[in-house]
Design brief:
The complex is a heterodimer of chains A (442) and B (482).
Chain A: H1 13-16, H2 24-40, H3 56-60, E1 64-65, E2 87-92, E3 95-96, E4 109-113, H4 114-121, H5 126-129, H6 136-144, E5 148-153, E6 163-169, E7 177-179, E8 182-187, E9 192-201, E10 208-217, E11 222-230, E12 236-245, E13 250-259, E14 262-271, E15 277-286, E16 291-300, E17 306-315, E18 320-329, E19 336-346, E20 352-361, E21 366-375, H7 379-387, H8 392-408, H9 414-427, H10 431-441
Parallel strand pairs in A: 1-7, 2-6, 5-8, 6-9, 7-10, 8-10, 9-11, 10-12, 11-13, 12-14, 13-15, 14-16, 15-17, 16-18, 17-19, 18-20, 19-21
Antiparallel strand pairs in A: 2-3, 4-5
Chain B: H1 2-12, E1 26-28, H2 35-44, H3 49-63, E2 87-89, H4 104-113, H5 117-124, E3 127-132, E4 135-139, H6 142-148, E5 151-154, H7 155-161, H8 163-169, H9 180-188, E6 193-197, E7 207-212, E8 223-228, E9 233-241, E10 249-251, E11 254-259, E12 264-272, E13 284-294, E14 300-307, E15 312-315, E16 318-321, E17 327-336, E18 341-344, E19 347-350, E20 356-366, E21 370-379, E22 387-397, E23 402-411, E24 417-426, H10 429-437, H11 442-458, H12 463-477
Helix pairs in contact in B: 2-3, 3-9, 7-8, 10-11, 11-12
Classes of the chains: A alpha/beta (442), B alpha/beta (482).
Chain lengths: 442, 482
């Protein structure tokens, strides 16, 4: 711990310490996390899980931890993609902004900011806070965790409206800000809830967001999560998501990545009891020199569990996307069904995709499949459209849009789906003509 | 149910059929590895100076390397100083001039293996360069090949007789420093096969080598180099069985293939080394580096392998598709039973325009076997119009085995089209039921289904090999039905 100052991010800990919530127990947790980082350091490309993603530039950049940064004076009305009639919590550069948030909590639902929850009773959150994690960035989050949300749905609570967590990131000078949001979701027996995590980078922001999200779905609970990552062009986003599913529980995670210089999401799902099921859907749209890396790790620890992974990447410019989907089936976890699909579209000469759908299976009565494709737009389809009088550019955009729509259409909330559709359209060439087409069709 | 389980266990315990050791005096170097041993090997083999220097370079670099640990394998520590790196049958001192001069005991060994050298060679029209331990003892059909201008000889002979060819091509596909085991091989390789097919020649027969590991404690470090010059064609078969013993035996071979413009090389392997007993004791460690360089335009390299033996298999026959329109193919059946472990697959590196590759991998796990497919398909920015199709399927027999798939796909060219498909499932109960209902025993039904599962790969083997492969699979799988 002597050379702490030389380790990226960790140096400022002593200055921030006083601003962080929690008593002695939490402090011990933070120190342990720091010690871990000190021992193991941050991943390099020699680490198999980081083979395709280089964080060395991120580690060299200088950031100011959120609690020390000043609050930007800015007008935030209308920056969001969609306005939902729902309970909404807004964080600006990692700090909770009650004045931007709305409160319409239904019965059976408890929502607290993490700082408040930790101050109240941190040890009650021990299974989440003290969880063993492989990632150095998750440990960094533990050391610096400051703000975030605790969502608890009481047994049997079925929420009509989704929750919306908005993380706005605004430019901060001279140093950009690093934030470590922590989200904990606990769904009691047979509870059902949906939540949206929007990470929006405002123009000019150069911040780094390092999220940790924990989900626990008790017996028969259903949790649906949508992560919309639309960071600014010069921002980095790293997320470690861990879901644990009990008997008959359902977890659905959609991830839409449409912006950010460096985006890395690790999603781990443990299916620990029978008949739990998970679906992980993802859409990546990257351009310029954006780098998006999604690592999925689904662990079937109990019999009769199901999983489905479907990720699609559309890459233009010099963008690079990485997909690593892993399905692990434990010994004696029989009657498993697991599917993985990674479909990728390369639109430019310099774009790159690295995909690796892995299976690790130790039980025999299983049905697993995985598929990966990389390609360009189908000449026959293009010809079909052109033969019907659609010009080449529009035909191309339409097909790209159709490719993306396979994932978008799985999003359950209509207004959100429409907003994501619009966001994706906005990134495509000839957006207007496609809009024209899709409007006519509907 | 109880009787059935007994039967199953009985079958699973079926012992290795080809297990025995032939008692032949060996001229063996003391265990251990140092520069003196390498000098000894080189001297014994009367090698030119460049060869010794090449070996020493490899050895010095090997000292700085670590064993790879990324594979999905559990490997007991290997004591490289406990291995003897040179062993030659006594007969090598006055080399036989014809088959009659070969030690009758050796010939007997081949008989037991079902390789009646003289007969088989004539009947099947196959030239056999049989490698017994480390030094070649018999070569047939040399003349017929020589007529066509094909050079097919042991590696030591090639170093002696064609040093300029060896110096030109050796290590150009698998460099000395390529990986830990390749470096070790480069330092101490004992012998192997050398093939050179000149311009425009279609090799008149299938070339075949039967390996056999014999003397106790002798690691086998084979080195094979096959060169098909412009427009040439050659098909090479490699097959092996080994005697039963308790001690782990290390085998670290290197195979280099070079296909010039319009040339085609077909390399087929049936591997049935001692896999260890049912407790997982003993068995061969098979750490092989195989790589083909499709250097010229329109060249083609095909790897076919049937891997049923060895305690541990670490093997990734690869193709570098450098020439435009070059083709790489990989067909593999890997079977693991008892405590066998296999981590095998391929690498297809697309560099030339319109390069195509096909990967078909069938993994079968039974007992407590662990079977992993590990493959890489890389499309570099220069590989415009590249195409890859990959299929890797796994079949699970029994609830204690494992099947794993680690496919890496790296694409840096938008014109590439890649498809990767994989499935993992257990043997279909419906299919078993259907066959058994028609009076076929469970055992035969399983073999039929497994053979059907592997058909795509067996199809690509030369006929005699396909038959042998099917039999091997049946033997290795006997009763592994649960």
């Amino acid at each position: 711990m002597n050379d702490m100052a030389s380790i990226p991010f960790v140096g400022e800990f002593r200055q921030v310490e006083g601003h962080l919530p929690g008593g002695a127990w939490v402090t011990k947790l933070r120190e342990a996390a720091l010690a871990r980082i000190g021992e193991q350091g941050f991943p390099t490309r020699r680490n198999e899980h980081w083979k395709y993603t280089d964080v060395s530039a991120l580690l060299k950049a200088e950031f100011i931890p959120a609690p020390l940064a000043s609050m930007p004076e800015a007008f935030f009305q209308g920056v969001q993609r969609f306005e939902l009639d729902c309970h909404q919590l807004v964080f600006l550069n990692g700090v909770f902004r009650p004045n931007l948030s709305s409160n319409s909590l239904p019965a059976g639902l408890t929502v607290k900011t993490l700082a408040a929850a930790i101050e109240e009773d941190a040890e009650a959150l021990q299974p989440f806070l003290a969880r063993e994690r492989d990632s150095a960035f998750a440990a960094l989050n533990t050391a610096f965790m400051h703000e975030g949300v605790l969502i608890e749905a009481a047994p049997g609570t079925v929420l009509e409206k989704p929750l919306h967590l908005v993380f706005l990131s605004a430019a901060h000078e001279p140093q950009p800000v690093v934030t470590h949001p922590r989200i904990i979701v606990r769904a009691g027996r047979a509870a059902a809830l949906r939540f949206i995590e929007s990470h929006l980078g405002l123009e000019g922001a150069r911040n780094f967001t390092n999220v940790v999200t924990d989900v626990l779905a008790e017996q028969g609970a259903q949790v649906r999560q949508l992560r919309l990552i639309e960071a600014a062009a010069d921002e980095s986003h790293i997320a470690n998501i861990h879901a644990e599913l009990r008997r008959d529980a359902v977890f659905v995670n959609h991830q839409v990545c449409i912006g950010g210089k460096l985006v890395r999401n690790d999603i781990r799902v443990d299916l620990v009891e029978e008949n739990a099921s998970v679906a992980l859907n993802g859409l990546v749209l990257a351009n310029g020199s954006e780098h998006v890396d999604n690592h999925l790790d689904v662990r079937h620890m109990a019999p009769r569990t199901q999983s489905d992974q479907a990720y699609r990447c559309i890459l233009d410019g010099r963008a690079r996307a990485v997909f690593n989907g892993r399905v692990y089936i434990a010994p004696r976890a029989q009657k498993i069904e697991a599917n993985q699909a990674s479909n990728n579209l390369l639109l430019s000469k310099l774009a790159e995709i690295d995909t690796k759908p892995e299976l690790e299976i130790y039980a025999d009565d299983v049905k697993c499949s995985h598929g990966a494709t990389v390609g360009q737009l189908d000449e026959n389809m293009l010809f079909y459209l052109r033969s019907r009088g659609v010009d080449a550019d529009t035909a191309r955009s339409l097909l790209i849009y159709a490719f993306a729509d396979e994932i978008i259409r799985r999003i359950g909330i209509a207004s959100v789906r429409a907003a994501v559709e619009a966001a994706v359209l906005g990134r495509l060439p000839d957006a207007d003509s496609i809009r024209h087409f899709t409007m006519e069709a509907s | 149910m109880a009787t059935k389980e007994n039967e199953v266990e009985q079958h699973l315990r079926s012992e290795y059929r080809y297990g025995w050791t032939t008692d032949i005096e060996s001229d063996t170097a003391p265990p251990g590895l140092n520069e003196d041993i390498i000098r000894l090997i080189s001297r014994k083999k009367k090698e030119p100076a460049f060869m010794l220097e090449w070996r020493l370079q490899a050895y010095r670099h090997w000292l700085s390397m670590r064993e790879p640990d990324w594979a999905h394998l559990r490997i007991a520590p290997i004591d490289y100083q406990a291995i003897s790196y040179y062993s030659a049958p006594r007969t090598s001192k006055n080399a036989p001039k014809s088959l009659d001069e070969v030690d009758p005991k050796l010939l007997e060994t081949y008989e037991k293996l079902g390789v009646p050298l003289h007969e088989r060679a004539r009947l099947a029209g196959v030239a056999v360069d049989a490698v017994f331990d480390s030094v070649s003892v018999a070569t047939t059909f040399r003349e017929k090949l020589a007529e066509a201008g094909v050079i097919f000889c042991s590696f030591s002979e090639a170093v002696r007789d064609y040093p300029e060819l060896v110096e030109k091509y050796l290590g150009t596909v698998v460099p000395q420093k390529d990986n830990f085991f390749a470096a070790l091989n480069s330092a101490v390789f004992s012998d192997g096969s050398f093939v050179y097919v000149p311009k425009g020649v279609r090799c008149p027969m299938e070339l075949s080598t039967y390996f056999r590991i014999n003397a106790q404690n002798t690691g086998q470090f084979e080195r094979t180099l096959i060169i098909a010059d412009e427009g040439a064609y050659v098909s090479y078969l490699e097959g092996c069985t080994a005697p039963q013993r308790d001690e782990n035996q290390l085998h670290a071979a290197v195979v280099e293939l070079i296909a010039e413009k319009d040339a085609e090389i077909k390399y087929s392997t049936v591997q049935n080394w001692y896999p260890g007993d049912e407790e997982g004791r003993g068995g061969i460690y098979n750490f092989v580096t195989k790589r083909g360089d499709a250097r010229g335009d329109n060249s083609k390299i095909t790897w076919t392998q049937v891997e049923t033996g060895s305690a541990i298999t670490w093997k990734y026959p690869s193709c570098i598709l450098r020439g435009d329109n070059s083709v790489g193919e990989f067909y593999s059946v890997a079977l693991t039973n008892n405590y066998q472990q296999a981590d095998t697959g391929t690498k297809m590196i697309h560099m030339g325009k319109n390069t195509r590759s096909t990967i078909v991998s069938k993994g079968i796990s039974a007992g407590k076997g662990q079977n992993a497919y590990r493959g890489l398909v890389r499309i570099t920015p220069t590989a415009t119009g590249a195409r890859n199709y990959t299929q890797c399927d796994s079949l699970l027999i029994g609830d204690e085995c494992g099947a794993h798939t680690f496919p890496y796909v790296e694409v840096r060219n938008p014109t590439a089209v890649l498809e990767h498909e994989a499935t993992t499932s257990k043997i279909s109960e419906d299919q078993l039921f259907y066959l058994m209902q028609r009076g076929i025993s469970e055992e035969d039904a399983t073999n039929m289904i497994v053979n059907g599962f592997c058909k795509d790969v067996f199809r690509t083997l030369p006929m005699e090999f396909a038959v042998e492969a099917q039999n091997l699979l049946a033997v290795s799988l006997e009763g592994a039905v649960g």
